[in-house]
Automatic annotation (TrEMBL):
GO terms for cellular component: membrane. It comes from Tychaedon coryphoeus. Gene3D superfamilies: 2.60.120.200. PANTHER family: APICAL ENDOSOMAL GLYCOPROTEIN PRECURSOR (PTHR23282), MAM DOMAIN-CONTAINING PROTEIN (PTHR23282:SF101). Coiled coil: none annotated. It comes from the Eukaryota. This is MALR1 protein. InterPro entries: ConA-like_dom_sf, MAM_dom, MAM_domain-containing. Residues 9-164 form the MAM domain.
Amino acid sequence: CFNSGSSWNNCDFETNLCKVLPEFNLQAGWIRRNGQSGMGPPYFDHNGNESAYFLSLSSEMQSSSAALRTNVFLPTDEEHLCQVRFHYWVSQMSGTLMVGLQMSSEDTVTNIWQVSGELRNQWNVNTITINSTEKYEVIFSGMVETQRQGDSVAIDDITFSEGC
């Protein structure tokens, strides 16, 4: 289901964003960096590579939350559900990562998955299945409540199945 060879539906952030995540949909607050950037954890991507890139919330940002929007996807059908797989890092103190859907007919974002900082500092992986009768965008929202050193929310290797 996941064709990781295709740059269209795999965002590993090594060179830039992928086609599904256009640059202008990267709101202020998310930055593309690697573990050697001197910005605190994570100090490596989900493969343990210090020089490989991922997205993380900037600890210097003024606002405490930032969203990452995909392009608009077409409605799903029974044969082609949209599956989104991603690796995430949420610091144990005060980080939150949410995934939401915004339907083309609605102004509000419907939250479909959320994790908050009860995790140990490690990369985790999750897959979300989306079933929608209308056009939609997928929105990743990260929040860090405090600006303590080491508080971090990061995301890496977002893969979209062909049903998206």
